[in-house]
Amino acid sequence: MRAYRTGLFPMAEHRDDPEVFWVEPRRRGIFPLDQFHISRSLAKRLRRDDYDVTLNRAFDDVIDACADRRETWISTEIRRLYTDLHHEGFAHSLEVWKEGELIGGVYGVAVGGAFCGESMFSRATDGSKIALSWLIDLLNRTGFTLFDTQFLTPHLASLGAQEITRAAYTLRLEEAVEREADILSAPLASGGHEVVQRNTQTS
User: Fold this and answer.
1) pTM for the complete prediction?
2) CA-CA distance, 45 to 50, in Å (whole number)?
């Protein structure tokens, strides 16, 4: 947790790597919480409400789904450490379900008013986008000011994520970690229509 407060995050080279190393990118990916982009097609999918969203119901399943790919940095040791952080109340997961099946999710670490996103997955169309939409809606209502995505990918950029310098990130992080924020202090949205409506008002 001290490392997160200074802008570092852990990774491993591969699934079976027993070693963990610390990373501090020169350029950092972030989601400006008031600039999350919900496209027309995603808004339509969100409004269907043919899915369920939960918070912290299946943390182990989410991290395992995130690691379920040919190459992954989520090693056995990384998984153990984040599971411990979850039990201690620092790491959180948001899950998307359809007909009882887990179709998308995201997990990360909360440090003051900063949420450090670690990984996400999708097993159905827009599964991870739905998860991010609901998560950002929740972060906006529970006192968070920074959503760290570590790196910027084309997928994240299409949703409004940006890349900033290490120095700019450090300034934002220093301010965010001193804030009081609690992801559990507000309920999840009542439905996707609510997520879309609030996003339209803030973006």
Assistant:
1) 0.95
2) 8
